[in-house]
Amino acid sequence: MLKIGTRGSHLATTQAGHMRDALIAHGYPSELHIVKTAGDVSHAPVERIGVGVFTSALRDALFDGEVDVAVHSFKDLPTAPEPRTYLIVPEREDHREALIARDGLTLDTLPKGAKVGTSAPRRVSQLRALRPDLEILPLRGNIETRMGRVESGEMDAIVLAYAGLVRGGFADRATQVFDAEVFMPAPAQGALAVECRVDDTALREGLDKLLHADSFACAAAERQVLATLEAGCTAPVAAHATIADGTITLRAGVFALDGSKQLIEEATGTDARELGTQLAQTLIGRGAAEIMQ
Which of 216, 248, 258, 288 is the most exposed place for a label (fewest CB within 10 A)? Predict the structure, then answer.
């Protein structure tokens, strides 16, 4: 029986549950195994404690033999390669951003000075550029907790990844799903990363059955932008890619936290990492480092 390592939140167990079911369907009996992390008991914003506390705990459990497979949100993983793991990306969920607002409001119809919750610098910077009048407030906790801030009237709206809403069964709560060119998502948003130990040859064959090559290529191109910019997953950097007939179209942006400046570039190519590197170097040449500071 394979043990699938996951955090204990509703979203994390739902995501890992899909991977468990897929492995079982391919003949690999599996069960979920909850891995406790320091981030689960901290009350500090994730931008302060870092998503690394979650991903490193899962990887430690994998290396220690506590679990056989680890399931992550790909956007949360460090961009540096981990030579001890074998990683695949299954078919990606919707990568767009979503607004959950009171009274069915959208970003355009929120009243002046409305309170909008998000702690991600990438979202903060884009919100400030689109609606400089809004009051942006910090937001943390699981999906249910975050949505509760709107239900209680504490906030007028929040911004979340639409993929999490879909996977958690809350898609109908979104009052607006943004076009990715209007409100750009995080690199690899909506993509899962499924890992096993690199020396587990038999299990690698099992994970290969879950691989979705196009999703992996698009997510890899987006994450290569981050890696080349030497920016962490909470930096004000956004990217999204699409693929058709083997050609990847990659769009990425870097934003000033106060919403005053943004650099956006687009490029096409067939090699994901080469394309991500090329586009990031273009952004660097235009002053991306200064804007991110």
Answer: 258
Q: Could you confirm whether 76 is annotated as catalytic?
A: yes
The one catalytic residue in 122, 128, 149, 167 is 122
Pair type for strands 192-197 and 85-88: antiparallel
Residue 48 confidence class, pLDDT cut points 50, 70, 90: very low
For 1, counting Cβ atoms within 10 Å of its Cβ (0-12 exposed, 13-18 middle, 19+ buried), the class is exposed
Tell me the CB-side half-sphere exposure of residue 109, using CA atoms within 13 A. 10
DSSP state of 38: G
Note the pLDDT tens digit of each residue in 70-122. 999 999 999 999 999 999 999 999 999 999 999 999 999 999 999 999 989 99
State the Cα–Cα distance between residues 108 and 85, nearest whole angstrom. 44
**Cα–Cα distance measured from residue 219 to residue 41, given in angstroms and rounded to the nearest whole number:** 30
Segment 250-262 mean pLDDT: 93
Does 75 qualify as catalytic in the annotation? yes
Is residue 59 part of the annotated active site? The answer reads: no
What the block records as the tokens of 232 is 């962490």
Residue 180 is inside which H or E element, if any?
none
